[in-house]
Amino acid sequence: MDLKKSPAPTDARPDSPAGDRPLPPTELRCSDADRDRIADMLRDALSEGRLTADEHAERVEGVLRAKTVGELDAFVRDLPAAHGSRPSGSQTAPPPNRPSAAIPAEADENVVAVFSSAVRRGRWRAGRRIHAYAIFGSVEIDLSEALFEYQQIVVKAISVFGDVQVRVPENVSMRGTGGGVLGNFEVSPLDSGDPQAPMVFVDGWAVLGNVEATPRKGRLVADILERVSERVSRSVDRKSAGQWERKVNRKLEQADRKMRRRMGL
């Protein structure tokens, strides 16, 4: 018996048009969720200083106009977030136990209480080094609402028959290196999930006194984007005020010319 082998069936038809082939992922139409994801990367890059405010605004405008996934990827191609890692490799590295040598030995601010009390709290700019001295008194250093302009801050606390309380936001890292002489020196270590979060080092001595450093529940470090938005708002306000002033001046000049023509001048 002569059996003829028939060709194996195939899904592709020889006369099928080329447009039936699947498109590469970069040519697919992007969704609003895709645009939001890229916008979040750009926002983080702005807060980290990888992009200037002008570059950020230009790229966000392009993201809103993008139609395909490939067009979106072009705006974050040079950012570490688009590749799922940071160049420094600090995502898994634990926070250091000692401050860097770049922090000066001289204090940016001294808070002293001798038979009295001294408090530093609210919206204030924390320097790189703060010294607190409580001698038969009490000192409170509250960083929960402070503006962190430096990634590393050192708080040196000396308590002699006194009390020093240090409060920090929940999302910073904190380390303590100090001790007590017939006193209590207690620092609650913190490890932030963000490798770029500020680092607070508390050191010093408690001599027949007390030094405590703890996180303040419900408080988070001020976002740098808030400061950037404030600067941008001030710039926009100045620009708007200048445009309004020029517009008013033009109106006054036009009215003056009309009045002169009517008076024949």
State the main characteristics.
flat, 4 helices, 265 residues, five-stranded parallel β-sheet, alpha/beta
Give a concise summary.
This protein is an alpha/beta fold and 265 residues long.
Protein topology:
Blueprint: H1 32-47, H2 53-65, H3 69-73, E1 109-114, E2 117-120, E3 125-126, E4 129-135, E5 138-142, E6 147-148, E7 152-160, E8 163-168, E9 173-181, E10 184-187, E11 199-207, E12 210-215, H4 224-262
Parallel strand pairs: 1-4, 2-5, 3-6, 4-7, 5-8, 7-11, 8-12, 9-11, 10-12
Describe the structure.
- It is a single chain.
- The protein contains four helices and twelve strands, in the order αααββββββββββββα.
- It has helices at residues 32-47, 53-65, 69-73, 224-262; strands spanning 109-114, 117-120, 125-126, 129-135, 138-142, 147-148, 152-160, 163-168, 173-181, 184-187, 199-207, 210-215.
- It is of the alpha/beta class and 265 residues long.
- The protein starts with 31 loop residues before the first helix and ends with a helix.
- Helix 1 packs antiparallel against helix 2.
